[in-house]
Model the fold of this input.
Amino acid sequence: MPEHLLITIAVIGGTGPEGTGLALRWARAGYRVIIGSRLADKAAAHAQALSDRLGGHGVLSGVANLEAARAGDLVVLTVPFEAHRAMLEELRPALTGKVLVDVTVPLVPPRVTVVQMPPAGSAGAEAQAALGAEVSVVSAFQNVSKDHLADEDEPIDCDVLVCGNNPAARDQVLKLVEAAGMRGWDAGPIQNAAVAEGLTSILIGINKQYRVRGAGIRIVGVPR
Ligand SMILES: NC(=O)c1ccc[n+]([C@@H]2O[C@H](COP(=O)([O-])OP(=O)(O)OC[C@H]3O[C@@H](n4cnc5c(N)ncnc54)[C@H](OP(=O)(O)O)[C@@H]3O)[C@@H](O)[C@H]2O)c1
Done:
């Protein structure tokens, strides 16, 4: 069996639409996926529903967030920004030596079409500063709308910018991007996450302005 398929991915807040879409795609690609929730029963029921949706083709389970983070080789954070800081504190004991993929966009309602970065410069930079050098924070997927992820059979019309200070961790996440059916780009250190996160407010504004759902981004001019 390919080595990467032995990796367990914990999706914290995986009961929400963004985490669900990613979890489904990774499970279908052969990764073991653990859904995390504040409520263990809710996580277990959601994992079962996703497993049923994949017709049993996928290894999914669901437990409370901290337990999921402990069991994950790699941990993906998909909770609202208002819960970001508290979740980092809760998960910290389970994250040492791991990669944390931070999907959080620092939206501050009601002005979600305006870029409003936290003091550290971005949610990703805030996570890296809060967790310290023993955790490799990689920021990714901020520009991929839940509307693209809703149907796991649909191709996704959006690229993914991958930022983080550890190049090996960025490479690992680039593989996850591909496994989920998207094109990823190495976008440099965690400071650059400010741009990816900020773009999301612009995309939400474009959705409103042009009455569409799921505006996305493409990097052009690079043969692949
Ligand atoms: N939605 C999108 O299109 C999209 C696109 C790109 C990036 N993102 C980012 O991805 C993240 C998740 O998005 P989403 O739309 O899936 O979010 P969501 O539905 O609002 O929340 C996801 C999950 O987070 C948990 N949660 C909610 N409030 C919480 C709190 N106060 N404390 C701890 N956990 C809480 C809930 O799980 P339990 O109730 O099971 O604990 C919920 O199912 C956000 O940071 C968002 O900015 C979203």
Observations:
- Strands lie at 8-12, 32-37, 59-64, 74-77, 99-102, 136-139, 159-164, 183-186.
